[in-house]
Design a protein that fits this description.
Blueprint (H helix, E strand, L loop, with lengths): L1 H25 L12 H6 L1 H4 L3 E11 L5 E5 L4 E5 L14 E11 L2 E11 L2 E3 L1
Parallel strand pairs: 3-5
Antiparallel strand pairs: 1-2, 1-4, 2-3, 4-5, 5-6
């Protein structure tokens, strides 16, 4: 009898976990569903992307201690992402994969991004 209750509890927990994952996926903002741009394309063709809202994804290589900016690397190049102008921060997530929607801009002659929406591990920050 005890094993039966344990098995039922495990099935219930599994179903709840699957439902939560489905809800998180369904809640992905439309902005993050756009075509992903390679960071290398932005770096090499910055004038073409200046002022454009794009989606990038990659690994967080480095992050500000307060979570207001980070460096995102997609394997082709790295890009500085500043989220402070959008009035939010992220928790410490260095090493995590992230997807970012934001506006390409130039700072000190280098392309950067002002992040407007960040998705890390299914969590949305904005």
């Amino acid at each position: 009898m005890r094993w039966k209750r344990l098995a039922e509890a495990l099935v219930l927990i599994t179903l709840i976990a699957m439902a939560v994952q489905a809800v998180q996926a369904a809640d992905e903002p439309a902005e993050l569903k756009g075509d992903v741009v390679a960071i290398q394309d932005i770096v090499k063709n910055e004038p073409a992307y200046e002022g454009q809202n794009v989606v990038i994804e990659g690994k967080i290589d480095m992050e500000c201690a307060s979570g207001c900016w980070f460096i995102l690397n997609d394997g082709s190049a790295s890009l500085y992402v500043n989220i402070l102008p959008s009035n939010f921060v992220i928790p410490q997530k260095s090493g995590s994969n992230a997807k970012v929607y934001g506006k390409v801009t130039t700072k000190n002659g280098d392309p950067t991004m002002i992040g407007k929406i960040v998705e890390i591990d299914g969590e949305i920050y904005r």
